Amino acid sequence: MANQLRRRNVAATGTVLALVAALCTAIPAGAAPPPDTGPLDLTKSTAQWIDRTTVAVKDDGGAAGTTTRLVSDQDGKLAVEDGELTGTGRESALRKVPGGLSAAQRAKFPHLARYAAYEVVPRDREHTAEDLTGQVILTRHESDGTLATATGVQTQGVLDDLYAARATKAALGPVFREGRVTLSVWAPTAQSVALELGGEHLPMRRDGASGVWSATGPGRWSGENYRFAVKVWSPSARAVVTNKVTDPYSLALTADSTRSIAVDLGAKRLAPEGWASLKKPKAVPLRNAQIQELHIRDFSATDRTAKARHRGTYRAFTGTRSKGSRHLRKLARAGTSYVHLLPAFDIATVPERRADQQRPACDLASFAADSDKQQECVASFAADDAYNWGYDPFHYTVPEGSYATDPDGTRRTVEFREMVQALNRDGLRVVMDVVYNHTAASGQDPKSVLDRIVPGYYHRLLADGTVATSTCCANTAPENAMMGKLVVDSLVTWARQYKVDGFRFDLMGHHPKANILAVRAALDALTPEKDGVDGKRIILYGEGWDFGEAADDARFVQATQKNMAGTGIATFSDRARDAVRGGGPFDDDPGAQGFASGLYTDPNPSEANGTPAEQKARLLHYQDLIKVGLTGNLADYTFTDSAGRRVKGSDVDYNGAPAGYAAAPGDALAYADAHDNETLFDALAFKLPPSMTPADRSRMQVLAMATAALSQGPALSQAGTDRLRSKSLDRNSYDSGDWFNALHWDCRDGNGFGRGLPPAADNKSKWAYGKPLLTSVGVGCRDIEATSAAYRDLLRIRTTEPAFGQRTADQVQRTLSFPLSGRAETPGVITLRADDLVVVFNATPETREQQVRDAAGIKYRLHPVQAKGADRSVKSASYESSSGIFTVPGRTVAVFSRSAR
């Protein structure tokens, strides 16, 4: 089976954020489209039936005497042969609407604004619902009878118009009430739906107003396996088919997702001991959240201190003595408030039974640090091993089975809850990474669920009717009512039934803003008394990138960075990230330096950095980007930039886009690294001077992390970054197995660097840069432990000092400043004044003096946490009250607090 692209990131170019796909070997999204045969092509669907009265057509072509019709056929036998329409079907007359679509229609379908509009004549509207259960095409005949156009018809809009009002209120999936079980599925275009339950084949009843099919049975249905047999016209198959398919609203599954299971998640047998009385750690507002991003398998797969049978599973989190669990508790005590779990819903690309999971049949440890043999061996087993990041949804509302000790049945439900329970008891709230913007497959692919029930509805279609794949997968269409409902219903289930404390949306910009706000409203309605959770405490954030067929609000107002400002839902900010690291994630030469990687002040040999003058200018601009990041990316925050101009955050340029876009602290989420792209250590390995000592690499890692941790608003760090985590330079490790992805909690095992050249598919073009590094760069226990301890000190400062947690943009403007910003600014040094604190980020190799004249006469001292902390170098930082001079050693971030003495 082909594996899916797993990650991507975006870089700003001009005013548009462009998707950069590292690898696009997606699970097939259906049959490949045949060659374009012109206007007589029923394999394409260029007409769009947008409501019960209107069909939109891109090419008007309506010359005098032309006749335009819809033709439907329940048997799906309509075809074009030798320029003539064959087969028989019912015709519906269309007449052109002068002026095109109405203002309301253009507002609802902005991408169709220039289309011609045709009205279904009133007498033919009464059989619309029946027509939609078969093949539907649009034809246009010239006055002499010549067939000029024949195309398929997209029907998402008319389906919503006919059914959404009732269907969006329906309870889908398994519902248990008064000892009876009801199973329901929305399938308005199906000609019939039967329930295969246990060994029975049972008819289902269709509700004409909602398009929902349902069957109700006795309590003994509980625990039974089931699936639906849906007879439906499939555009990708070009035929009426009967699909045997699982429930999109599945709550439990058999191994490898072959059958749904009728379960009541409220049943006591599925609740671990103490679940009902679980006490959460104190809720931390999003603006103050400190988040660790963690892959479930990475956490324990190679941890020898975890129980062998629990490694790589949910249950590994319940083992209090493992090194991984101990480290999470250290982070929690220091101020980490949330663990963000990479996708843990049912995913499509991992065999769930351990017996079916392949392992590399090589002695990986025997190869040299710069060998290509490790990656070759890992890649040969990648399709069938136990590893994937999981951004390939199969069933949205069931825990992934490969992380359970038994994937067949409901153990995954119990064990997911045990994991949440364990993390909460360790002082950490839980965020789930959710991926509603695409599915693993579409069309008639065996891994396709939604599209085999309501073909052509749940996915976003392009102008020709093909499925959009700008995410490198089959894009869903949350702008359609029932896909939007699925998003909301699924998230409410995770919140109520699994007590998840937050959600991170993958490629949130592919969702309508209205859909994400509907999620917020549904979660806010959950109460401890009624639902067992306080929905208002659940945090939301996501990737607000703007690209693809939805870019620039082409189809709806998107949930992008600029559009989500002021909503209380955060978006990842790439501005400071790129400035801190240097360059962008997809540079041809990975040696392009940034603020925390030595640009200008500690240059490497890379020609990508330019002349010293160019480096200085770029470094000072990077410092302005970081300053905006430290404010929480506020659009209206005013300060003096490095050129001496008074500017707002939105005036600072980020590759043609405004650097500042947030309306309040908490709108933007800061980070220096995440699972996408190289780890921070690996990025710095490419960028820092090759001769730099391990101790100095450690210090630059801490400084880079500090720019996120000490910013206004939430911050995220990839698990292990505080321990110098490396993936041996792999920039896209979605399918690179445990060998490249493992977290090394024991410093004696190293940090993961030098485990061979990274997989060729995404990294071969960088091998020439990486090969010499893999045998020359190294860190030891002292460096790893020092980095982690220094980061925890920063967390303690961040989470105990109110100056870093301002509530409003006005408070940030009043209390935060950059007193040394301007033409005389020191390249490589940023000085931040935040209420009673002064923070100096010295990224240069030398000790630097920063004179803040307004501070003269005020008593400051090194913050007590750092004064008593783990970093010996920072303890030499000093302040001279008479002159207002702060002195900070090289490669150090020092926090000074106003002294009461």
UniProtKB/TrEMBL annotation:
<dbReference type="GO" id="GO:0005975">
    <property type="term" value="P:carbohydrate metabolic process"/>
</dbReference>
<dbReference type="Pfam" id="PF11852">
    <property type="entry name" value="Pullul_strch_C"/>
</dbReference>
<dbReference type="Pfam" id="PF02922">
    <property type="entry name" value="CBM_48"/>
</dbReference>
<dbReference type="InterPro" id="IPR040671">
    <property type="entry name" value="Pullulanase_N2"/>
</dbReference>
<keyword id="KW-0732">Signal</keyword>
<feature type="signal peptide">
    <location>
        <begin position="1"/>
        <end position="31"/>
    </location>
</feature>
<dbReference type="InterPro" id="IPR017853">
    <property type="entry name" value="GH"/>
</dbReference>
<dbReference type="GO" id="GO:0051060">
    <property type="term" value="F:pullulanase activity"/>
</dbReference>
<protein>
    <submittedName>
        <fullName>Pullulanase-type alpha-1,6-glucosidase</fullName>
    </submittedName>
</protein>
<comment type="similarity">
    <text>Belongs to the glycosyl hydrolase 13 family.</text>
</comment>
<dbReference type="InterPro" id="IPR024561">
    <property type="entry name" value="Pullul_strch_C"/>
</dbReference>
<dbReference type="InterPro" id="IPR011839">
    <property type="entry name" value="Pullul_strch"/>
</dbReference>
<feature type="domain" description="Pullulanase N2">
    <location>
        <begin position="45"/>
        <end position="161"/>
    </location>
</feature>
<dbReference type="InterPro" id="IPR013783">
    <property type="entry name" value="Ig-like_fold"/>
</dbReference>
<feature type="domain" description="Alpha-1,6-glucosidases pullulanase-type C-terminal">
    <location>
        <begin position="749"/>
        <end position="897"/>
    </location>
</feature>
<dbReference type="InterPro" id="IPR013780">
    <property type="entry name" value="Glyco_hydro_b"/>
</dbReference>
<dbReference type="InterPro" id="IPR004193">
    <property type="entry name" value="Glyco_hydro_13_N"/>
</dbReference>
<feature type="domain" description="Glycoside hydrolase family 13 N-terminal">
    <location>
        <begin position="172"/>
        <end position="250"/>
    </location>
</feature>
<dbReference type="InterPro" id="IPR014756">
    <property type="entry name" value="Ig_E-set"/>
</dbReference>
<dbReference type="Pfam" id="PF17967">
    <property type="entry name" value="Pullulanase_N2"/>
</dbReference>
